[in-house]
Amino acid sequence: MRKLFFSLMGVVLIGTLSFGQQFTDLSQEVPFDSSIRRGVLPNGLSYYIKHNENPKGAASFYIYQNVGASLETDEQDGLAHFLEHMAFNGTTTFPGKSMLDMLEKNGVKFGRDVNAYTTRNETVYNMSRVPTSREGLVDSCLLVLRDWCDELSLEEAEIDAERGVISEEWRTRRNASFRVQAKTAPIIFNNTIYAQRDAIGELDVIKNFDPKELRSFYHEWYRTDLQAVAIVGDIDVDTIEAKVKALFSAIPAIENPKERAVVAIPDNEEPRYVQVMEPEYKNVTIDLKIRYKKQNDNTLAGLRENYINSFFNALLSGRIKELVQESKQPYQRASVGLGSLERGYGTFDVFASCEPGKEAAAFEAAYTELERVLRYGFTETELERLKTNMLVSVENSYKKRDLIGAESYCKAIKTAYLQQVSIPDGEFKYQFAKAIIPGITAEEVSAVAQKYLTDRNRSYVITGPEREPGTVFISQKEIEDIVANVQNSDLAPYVDNAPVSTELLSSLPEAGEIVSEKKIEEFNATEWTLSNGAKVVYKFDDYVKEAVVLTGQSNGGSSLYGVEDIPSFNAAADFVGGFGIGDFDAVQFKKVTTGKTAACGFNIGGYSESVSGSTKVVDLETMLQLVYMRFEEPRFDKENFDRLMEINYRNAANEVKTAKSIMRDTLNTIISNGNPRSLKFSKEYLDRINFERMKEIYQERFANAGDFTFFIVGDVPEEELKPLVEQYIGSIHSNGKTEKWVDNGNYYPTGKHEYRIEVPMQDPKATIVLKFRNEFDYSREAVIYQQIIGSILNLRYTENIREKEGGTYGVTVKPTVSRIPNMKYGLNIQFDCDPTKADHLKELVYKELDVIQKNVQSSDLDKVVLNMKKNYGQKVENNGYWMSVLQTYYSTNENKLDPGYYEDIIERVTTKDIAKAAKKFLKNADVLDVVFLPESDKQSLTIHSNN
Fold first, then answer.
1. What distance in Å separates the CA atoms of residue 337 and residue 489, rounded to the nearest whole number?
2. With 90 as the cut, is the pLDDT of residue 470 above it?
3. What order do you get walking across the sheet with 458-465 strand by strand?
4. Which partner for 103 in 108, 464, 546, 639 could form a disulfide, CB atoms 3.0-4.6 Å apart?
């Protein structure tokens, strides 16, 4: 049978040459999107320029360096990443921090709009969402790109100052996954340089390297033949191209450049095996990885093969999901399919994750599904459903092709440059998919497994929790014996149990009617009141063609229930959505909605419950049927419930305490402060979940359409929507009651509480968490000022704690505002650092809090306000935006379109306003000051408090 698939595949490939005249020659190159202006300068630098008005009035500037950690010597380990940091610490045109200062003074924020990253094979810098109304700013961004190419200062003082920042980033990255990857990489990458280079590098090198090593790496690899720039946005392409040519052509090409070779991973004829035990891991993973070389095939045949490979992954993933949903499996997660590894290489993986002791059964179950495909292939029916869904997805993407954002284009350009492939335009992708997808056969997709399932280049990668030395979770021989046994076993073919009925509803409900209607002139919207009491607010919006979104919301949530019901309430929120709907379980529902774009989910939270939906207009009735069914025909599956509960009981019994989980749980305990409604996940918690009570709670939350307000926004005419609303929303039951959420009390600790908590941890670091909270009356000014306070503090901490002190990789500052159950303003500050510096750095945090109450720098306020104006001005008035406008109006009676809601406030805000607001907030604020430190003996949790 396996040989037959190969011969059939050959026949099919030949046969496909007869489809559509446009694509008869599959050896043709994929055409490059002609709307992207591209070229290569005489010095070898590539450029890509495209006009794009999403968002309008802005552009993104990128530089792609075909350079990464794999090019480092041992003395340079980590310097590719270090060099990336130095690009923001002084160039010829922008000395010191003046580049970031210039950008932030124009509303372009470091971290959000300005950033960079480094991997083993690439380094990418970006300035995104830059306003283009000022030509001078655009010119400055081009100068930044030019300097990133060839004009980094690399001053010794700046290098030494950055050592601390990167040392703290190194500390932050040290976690269980990082430790495991370091130990498995030599096997996966067969002891090549990839196994030695993780981009962040070695701490000893970071702290002690000679600056000449950094300069050597820079001059050797940052060169025009390994660089490309991209400018995408609301710009004139001809003008920008002329400027790029003039500016970048002046950069000299490097004479006799060193070869930029791609790392070749040698073949291994015999399988390789590695087992890594990690104290913070709970489950065992078994991963058979088969490495293969990937070719950058830029032909139509290559594009077609990409579809075939993606179909293989999707179909096998679908089968495994069905098994999990329909029966108990020995694995918690499993997958089989193709994935990426590093440049030029991919892997074919058979993966399973399970509890310790179930390794053999879990891997056998996963491999059995692969073997089932090898013997019998995929069925025509499951492939046809996938093809139908794919064609619908392709058509939807085609209709939204004019809405693709600048950032998406920049990401595609990066792939095009680094992998030397084309970016086809939307028209080509649509026409190619329509022509190619119908001709793909089940035999071709089935043959993918045999193509990649080779005996060479195999690795067995096993990870699991720490056990006694010498413990083997599962050996190489045991895995190979499982494979042999599965191959020799009796195995039935997959049976595709398609639903008998393709109708969601067996009969139409009795329609209601619209009993009153009023216009909401401010938003050009209409409110309908239905005979069952439900309100529907409708707004026509065709920004996204043929798309419709819906949200229905009611007050109540878990606030209406006692402590004894909270576990069952949470189960209703978490479980019911996976049971399916109406007469269809989750598997059958997916099949019966093949080709449909309609989706509808629900949420039940602390103070409300809601339904939400989205669809293309062609499936509008289906979406509204699903909304009706969420109320009237929910599905409750006891067998599925029992399986989920069993998994949760196992998770509770096998919980592994990590430094992160200990800190999280401890902090939650402090914040809950004895609140009886704050329940910890445990066996006792699970014992309180009751299937029947869960069912009752769900039905209670969705028993009364009259207590819901539904918002519908999209490209559907009123006359088409009205009868469907009456049919499906108007027919939902109502009991005439109106519910309100309940305030169950405030247990948050009042006053100031300081804690020093010692936690056992593998990689010593301190974590500082500061939480400030205060309650006072609501005003729009207070809300916006709170956002400004957080942004200004972010600037101050970046400058004084990250840059000047080199004390942390970054201080996270999050201002918060909540109105339910009462008005609360908050400020959360958190960072990691060297334990020996924790007290000093925390003192600096408080110092800035003192300063902002007395003296706000006008330069800081200007930067923050400009960024806020820019972001607000670049908002897209799509369905989601209008949904937010309408919901805000109905929930708070505030008009987001009114200049007084936002623009007027940030236009007139002063430094005195912010200082006054900061003083008002911080005066008498409740404070939680928590410092987590490593425990020297790593034996127990120690808490020292000073309240």
1. 22
2. no
3. 272-278, 458-465, 284-293, 345-354, 333-342
4. 108
**Residue 128 parent element (H or E):** strand 123-131
- Please state which of the four CATH numbers 3.40.50.720, 3.30.710.10, 3.30.830.10, 3.40.50.2300 is assigned to the domain occupying 514-728: 3.30.830.10
Residue 2 has pLDDT above 70, yes or no: no
Q: Report the C-alpha gap between 227 and 224 in whole angstroms.
A: 5
Per-residue pLDDT reduced to its tens digit, 811-834? 999 999 999 999 999 999 999 999
Please state, in angstroms and rounded to a whole number, the distance separating the CA atoms of residues 440 and 384: 10
**Once rounded to an integer, what is the mean pLDDT over residues 150-166?**
96
Number of residues assigned to the chain: 947
Residue that the structure tokens 């749980």 belong to: 665
Q: How much is the pLDDT for 21?
A: 52
pLDDT at 945: 57
| CA pair distance 337, 348, nearest whole angstrom | 6
- Give the number of other CB atoms < 10 A from CB of residue 940: 9
Query: What are 898's two structure tokens?
Result: 């009114």
So what's the pLDDT on residue 942? 53
Residues of CATH 3.30.830.10 domain(s) within the chain? Answer: 2-23+267-400+414-487, 37-248, 514-728, 752-946
Q: DSSP class of residue 615?
A: E
Tokens of 253: 């090409």
Per-residue pLDDT tens for 229-243?
999 999 999 999 999
Which positions ≥6 away from 684 have C-beta within 8 Å?
none
Percent of the chain clearing pLDDT 90 (strictly above): 93
pLDDT of 501: 80
Structure tokens at 502: 């393709």
Quote the pLDDT of residue 4: 31
Q: For residue 233, what is the DSSP state? A: E
**Residue 939 scores a pLDDT above 70:** no
Burial class (CB in 10 A: 0-12, 13-18, 19+), 936: exposed
Which pLDDT belongs to residue 136? 95
Nearest by Cα to 122 from 297, 343, 282, 298:
343
Cis amide bond preceding 55, omega within 30: yes
Q: Which two tokens stand for residue 558?
A: 């878990």
Distance CA 83, CA 616 (A): 47
pLDDT at 14: 31
User: CA separation (Å) from 579 to 585, 611, 732?
Assistant: 6, 16, 21
Contact (Cβ atoms closer than 8 angstroms) between residue 83 and residue 218:
yes
Looking at domain 2-23+267-400+414-487, which of 3.10.290.10, 3.30.70.980, 3.30.70.1400, 3.30.830.10 is its CATH number?
3.30.830.10
**How many helices (H) does the chain have, and how many strands (E)?**
30, 24
- For 495-549, how does the pLDDT look when each residue is reduced to its tens digit (9 = 90+)? 998 887 889 999 999 999 999 999 999 999 999 999 999 999 999 999 999 999 9
**Can you say whether the dihedral through the CA atoms of 786, 789, 795, 800 is positive or negative?**
negative
- In contact, 258 and 220? CB cutoff 8 Å: yes
Peptide bond into 266 cis (omega under 30): no
Structure tokens that stand for 195 in this block: 């196994």
CB 867 within 8 A of CB 104: yes
Q: How many CA atoms lie within 13 A of 718 on its CB side?
A: 13
Check whether 938 has a pLDDT greater than 50.
no
- Averaged over 389-418, what is the pLDDT? 96
500 or 760, which is more confident: 760
Element (H, E) at 382: helix 380-399
What is the helix (H) or strand (E) element at residue 829, kind and residue range? strand 824-833
Q: Domain 752-946 is of which CATH architecture? A: 2-Layer Sandwich (3.30)
Mean pLDDT to the nearest integer, 921-927: 97
Q: Does the structure show a pLDDT above 70 at 715? A: yes
Q: Please state which architecture CATH assigns to domain 37-248.
A: 2-Layer Sandwich (3.30)
Contact 730, 514 (CB under 8 A): yes
